[in-house]
Design a protein that fits this description.
The structure holds two protein chains of two kinds.
Chain A lengths: L3 H14 L5 H20 L4 H41 L1 H14 L7 H12 L34
Chain B lengths: L7 H10 L4 E2 H11 L8 H14 L2 E3 L15 E4 L1 H23 L8
Antiparallel strand pairs in B: 1-3, 2-3
Helix pairs in contact in B: 1-2
Classes of the chains: A mainly alpha, B mainly alpha.
Chain lengths: 155, 112
Amino acid sequence: MGSARSQAGSIRVYRGLLFAYPAAFRDEYARELCLAFADRCRGTRSPGALATVWAEALLGILSEAPKEYLYMILHDLRYALRVLRKGGMASFLLGDLLKSQLFEITPTDPAVSVWIGTSVSSSDAGFIPARAPGHASGSHCGSTSRMKLKPGGQL
Amino acid sequence: MRPFILSRDTFHILVALADGERHGYSIMQEIGERTAGAVRLSPSTLYSAIKRLLEQGYIEELEERPDPAHDDERRRYYRLTKAGRRAAMEEARQLEKLLSDARSTGLAPKRV
């Protein structure tokens, strides 16, 4: 239908609407989407038909763009879980969590993380110290070298 | 009965690709003609489904366009893989079974 100018305008607007999609999807399929939409517009013979094409296009974007975000998030979560499972990071992160809960010290202290990670994954990890040395004064545990480890994970 | 593994739109796309490679708009046209306009995929629906089908290995993108001389070089062509054909056949079998059940209970007209 209509002039080439109105079709070009429709395609420009449609291309703008594709920003509702995640960037990765847009990079991969924006050109194809625009081509298919342009073909659809070219095939219309009346303003009513063009309105129908527009309605379908809008509905399509509104229903599919959120799904693409969801797929992207699920994909990232699956990847993160796979990495965690592979590297035994679950134990490491749990150790970090326990450490920050129990010791209330800086969560980036690697020595303590590694130690708690080890004690959580070991079979006799029953001992949990009530307070870390130096915690009673209200100060952060300055150095983990002050914590003496005994065999079996005890302080 | 095993639940259907393909959505309606996905199955339509696989059926459209069953007799040869096509580009996106051609798939949309084929589905429209085959269903007499009852199913009209929007470009968004089509390419979301295509993305998923590519990830699942049910379709693949052609390295070369079938007719480069008479075609827009920006278009991508897709074709069914063996896995895609198997999945479509399995889906058709399931639908056939469902229809046969519907016939036996009087929900669908019996074959003449």
